[in-house]
Amino acid sequence: MFPVRKKKLSLILSLLVLLLTLTVLEVLAKEEEKISIDGDLFTMFFNEDIITVEKSVKILYMDMIITAEKAQYKRNIEEVIIEDNVLVRQEDNIIKSPYLWVDVEEEYIIFSGGVEATYFYAQKEGEEKEAIYIWSDTLDVWDGAASAWAQGNVRAIYQDFTLTAEEAHLDQKEETLTMLGNVYVEREDGSWFSCQKGVYDFVKETITAYGSAEDKVKSEFIRPKDGEN
Amino acid sequence: MVGEEKNNRVNKIKVILILISLLSFSLASWQMTRKLEILIGLEEDLSFHFRLADNDVVGWNKGELIWRLQVSNILEPPLKDKHSGGEELILRDIYRGYFYRQDEILFTFTVEEAHYNTRTGDLVLYDCRMESPLGDWLVTDKMYYDKKRNDLRAPGPVVGNMAGTDFKADEMRVYFDDEEINMFNIRMVHSLKKK
């Protein structure tokens, strides 16, 4: 009788210990997420909620390193407005803009004032990464910076393609670049096509162009000269 | 009649004498208070007041209440301050202090010891912990209140928490006239709720 009871008791105890360990781990994991802000000069006025950090500002948020000359936020750091020479590094990716707004809790970021983004992408693991350059008026970043939505005067360069559109969505999970509105794609050899929607698949290395009844896909391909690929 | 008149005169003289003695006593008391004020250097433009009755040391600047220290019982004898030429009161057993702005508490603080210069009106606080009415707090080794500049400076490392954000700075300055707080070379870390 007793050994069976002992076994049950030890099983219950083990389960309790496991549950406790899991709870502690969960709490620790929850505490891990942080935003840190460093700067040379911190300014706050009496009875005001706004805090300004200036000169050599460095912000660590998610896996991004943000540097700028000025950052402003409310005491509870729900959102941060970052200005002057904003430079964001996330792994190899670099984004530059004059102005950046960060919704800290929602993990949503908007660059504005003329954005220059450089993403690096390797088709296969171990392969050398290739740069995708994107210029736009604004750039929204979310989903842990995996998704980026460029809007207004979008221009992108990847390999020997130059792409222009009204909007572009870079999805690093799906590994696609979707361009929307007056899309124009040109290769170095002079080939081009225009459409209303174009999707570049980084894995398949294909571009799919979509037209509409009013605005069909137009294209011109240059046949390689003899001896050229 | 003559005897009654004599008695009235004597009474009058008595009253006059009592009045004179009362007046002399008041004058002597006033002189003594004045002497005490002079001793601790409070005669200067009445910008600082020392209230023995409720053990408060109060700092004023340009007619505005800036700080107040509640000293529980000990007021060390004044020491000559070689640097300022004034006298320095060493205040111990302080159980609470306050910094004010427009008669409202800006910070409350606790300190181990405070030195108050009677000539300059400056105040030095040692081992301070300051708290704001919103619950923000900071600790630092030393803070100076400079009456001339009307500012408070913590020259050493300052560590604290503001609205849930931990911070550490090399230096802090509070400008009462500009109603501004500056911290230099600051690092702030704010924990986020994980989704």
What is the tally of helical segments of chain B?
1
Largest inter-chain contact set: A-B, 26 and 24 residues
**CATH architecture grouping of the largest domain in chain A:** Sandwich
- By DSSP, the count of extended strands of chain B is 15
Mean pLDDT of chain B: 80
Distance between the termini of chain A: 83 Å
State the distance separating the first and last CA atoms of chain B: 107 Å
Q: Major β-sheet of chain A, in short?
A: 13 strands, antiparallel
Structural class of chain A: mainly beta
Which term fits the overall shape of chain A? flat
Give the helix proportion of chain A (percent range): 10-25%
- N-to-C SSE series of chain A? HEEEEEEEEEEEEE
Q: What is the CATH H-level superfamily of the largest domain in chain B?
A: Lipopolysaccharide (LPS) transport protein A like domain
3D architecture notes:
The complex is a heterodimer of chains A (229) and B (195). Chain A is mainly beta and 229 residues long. Chain A has one helix and 13 strands; from the N terminus they run αβββββββββββββ. Chain B has two domains: 1-39; 48-190, Sandwich (lipopolysaccharide transport protein A fold). Chain B is 19% helix and 49% strand. Chain B has one helix and 15 strands, in the order αβββββββββββββββ. The longest helix of chain B is centred in the N-terminal third of the chain and has 38 residues, at 2-39. Classes of the chains: A mainly beta (229), B alpha+beta (195). The A-B interface holds A 29-47, 53, 75-77, 104-105, 107 and B 101, 106, 162-165, 169, 179-195.
